[in-house]
Design goal:
single chain; Actin, Chain A, domain 4; five-stranded mixed β-sheet
Length: 350
């Protein structure tokens, strides 16, 4: 009874707390926030200067005592206090102006399926301290599958690969639970690092993370499915120490990220090998579903199809699949309880 009363006077929230971007869904209003998971911190005073979009603008452009940091690394909390402040900022920003009439929200947060209980508790505590009435944690592959409207409650195999900024989550789901899964700390951020190292080694040019991200999005390709693309990049020549601009092409990017992409593909094949035969027959018919920002790199679906001999589909709007799944769970409490029990959510303290 009390839960029903609270639900009428609170705005429940689903959060995709990503390594690169955080998205927030508010019940009844949809996705209303998508900002970088970045915090600008004054190291002399410990003061937080900016969060989200404003902090992102400072990356690579701050004096020595101001650091633009990512409080989540490879999908897990690396700085508890800063993560808590970032969550509080996002929660306060999305709540209506008459928030003082509302009770504290109930919050669902997507988490990688491979994190430890300690890392789970860090996310739970950060959300609780940021003002949540109740906190529910759901594994990202399950949230992404729900966001893609896959029939995960049925007795059939659903294969999803969610490639975010910090982690790649590979899972086979049936009857609302994960049957087989792998969580890799190889995803969008690692591909950016690969591009930075490759450009440094081949062209003796030092570029920043934002430049690498732009190159990956604009001309990135992991399998030849399109004509060769080119892009100019600017950085510092490591030999002369002077600024320089060069032109690189999609072949450079493919070579730079080849090792990391192959590791993701091999992990997908490993999960296939561990999947029970009955579920595998369903997957052979329905295919592998790709979600997350990393799934948008050109040719990835074709490469996975070539290596696994299975249909591969990129779900609609893959960037928002996890938070959309969280939103669906919020709107339907029956799905919420069934699914989160399967994924061993942390019960809020009495």
């Amino acid at each position: 009874m009390m839960n029903k009363l609270f639900s009428k006077i609170s705005e429940d929230i689903a959060i995709d707390l990503g390594t690169c971007n955080s998205l927030v869904y508010v019940s009844g209003r949809g996705i209303i926030l998508n900002e970088p998971s970045v915090v600008a911190l004054n190291e002399k005073t410990g003061q937080i200067l900016a969060i989200g979009n404003e902090a992102q603008k400072m990356v690579g452009r701050t004096p020595a005592h101001i650091k633009a940091i990512k409080p989540l690394v490879r999908g897990v909390v690396s700085d508890f206090e800063v993560t808590e402040q970032m969550l509080k900022y996002f929660i306060d920003k999305v709540r209506k102006k008459n928030w003082f009439f509302l009770s504290s929200p109930r919050i669902i947060i997507g988490i990688p399926c491979g994190i430890t209980e300690v890392e789970r508790k860090a996310v739970f505590d950060a959300a609780k301290n940021a003002g949540a009435r109740e906190v529910f944690l759901v594994e990202e592959p399950i949230a992404a599958a729900i966001g893609a409207r896959l029939p995960i409650q049925e007795a059939k195999g659903n294969f999803i690969v969610d490639i975010g900024g910090g982690t790649a989550e590979i899972a086979v789901i049936s009857l609302g639970g994960i049957v087989v899964s792998k969580s890799l700390k190889i995803a969008g951020d690692k591909l950016n690092e690969d591009i930075i190292q490759y450009i440094e080694q081949k062209y003796k040019l030092l570029i920043g993370e934002r430049t690498a991200e732009r190159v990956k999005i604009e001309i990135g390709m992991v399998f030849p499915v399109d004509k060769k693309r080119e892009a100019p990049i600017r950085g510092r020549n490591l030999v002369t120490g002077l600024p320089e601009e060069i032109i690189i092409n999609s072949d450079d990017v493919q070579e730079a990220v080849e090792k990391s992409i192959n590791q993701i593909v091999e992990s997908i094949k490993s999960v296939i090998e561990e999947t029970p035969p009955e579920l595998l027959s369903d997957i052979m018919e329905d295919g592998i579903y790709l979600s997350g920002g990393g799934s948008l790199i050109r040719g990835l679906d074709v490469l996975i199809n070539k290596e696994t001999k299975m249909p591969v589909k990129t779900i609609e709007d893959p960037l928002t699949s996890v938070v959309r799944g969280g939103g669906i769970l919020l709107e339907d409490i029956d799905i919420l309880k069934a699914t989160l029990t399967q994924t061993e959510y942390l019960e809020p303290p009495k």
